[in-house]
Amino acid sequence: MTYPASPAGAGSPRIRPDSGQFWAGAVATAIVAALIALVGILICRWTLNIPILAPVGDGAWGDAHTGEYVLVAALVALVAAGLLYLLVLSTPNPGLFFRWIIGLVTLIAVVYPFSSGAPLDQKVATAAVNLVLGLAIASLLTATAARAIRRTGPRASGPAGPARPVDSGVPADPYGERGQGYGQQPTRPTYTPRTGPADGWQ
């Protein structure tokens, strides 16, 4: 059973995402997000002596919460990539919706640590790491979508006609190959250039 094509979408451009390229970039974004989370924890605990996600006695690497935080950062990047992919396939302006959604989620992640009973320096450090994570995920996925998603024009609705010759401004040779056969030199017409501005230029 066949369905007729929608006339409303006949003249609109189609979005063609490259799935392989997009998801390769999404996996790379998840790896970068996990590394950012790990580096942020190490900087806070080792360089700044701020024991985030674990007590001071657990050292620079912290406890099991450090590994959970790193895995959650990678998972959030993959979920954001899936959201962007669905927005590309279903919404008219996927970039705008994605920036709003990822911006609001990042804001929640930045504000949430201040609701806990941890010291102020730990709250600020955790919020800073979450902010860097949100910005990194948003920028990397946006750049990935810009390279992996193509907007193609619609096909012509009617049958293709014969190709029209390109007007070069020079008349056709009146002798053609026939003059060459009789040993005559064809007369080259003179070409008068246009004096006005070219099309598309002012």
Mean residue pLDDT:
74
Q: How is the largest sheet built, in terms of strand order?
A: 1-2
What is the share of helical residues? 40-55%
Q: How many strands?
A: 2
Low-pLDDT stretches are 1-10, 55-62, 193-202
Q: Choose one word for the global shape.
A: elongated
**What distance lies between the first and last C-alpha atoms, to the nearest angstrom?**
54 Å
Order of helices and strands: EHHHHEH
What profile does the largest beta sheet have? 2 strands, antiparallel
Binned strand content: under 5%
Query: Which structural class best describes the helix and strand composition?
Result: mainly alpha
Helical stretch tally: 5
How would you summarize this macromolecular structure in one to three sentences?
The protein has five helices and two strands. The chain has helices at 19-47, 64-90, 94-111, 120-148, 176-181, and strands at 14-17, 149-152. The longest helix has 29 residues, at 19-47.
